[in-house]
Amino acid sequence: MIIMLVLLVFVVSFLFYLSNWVVAQYGGDVAFGQILFHVQIGFMANEGVDESIIYSFLQSVVLYTVITTLFFAVLSYFLLKYRPAQKKIGSVFVILILIGCLFQAKENFNLDDYIKAKLGADIFSVLYRNPNDIEFVAPAKPRNLILLYVESLENNFKNIEGKNLIESIEKLPGLHVPDFKQAPGTNWSIAGMVASQCAIPLKGFSPSDWNVFEQDLFLPNAVCLSDILHKFGYQQIFLTGPDIEFAGVNKFYKTHHFDQMIGRDEAKKWVTRKNLYTGWGLGLHDDTMLDLAYDIAVKSAGSSKPFNLTILTTDNHSPHGMSSPRCSIKERQASFVGAVQCSSRHVSRFVERVLKNKKLENTDIVIMGDHLFMAIPEQESKFSDNRTLYFKYINSRKTATARSDMTHFDVAPTILDSLGLLQDGTQKFGLGYSVFAPIDEYLDTQTKNLSLEIISPSKTYDALWKKISE
Question: pTM for the complete prediction?
Answer without folding.
Answer: 0.92
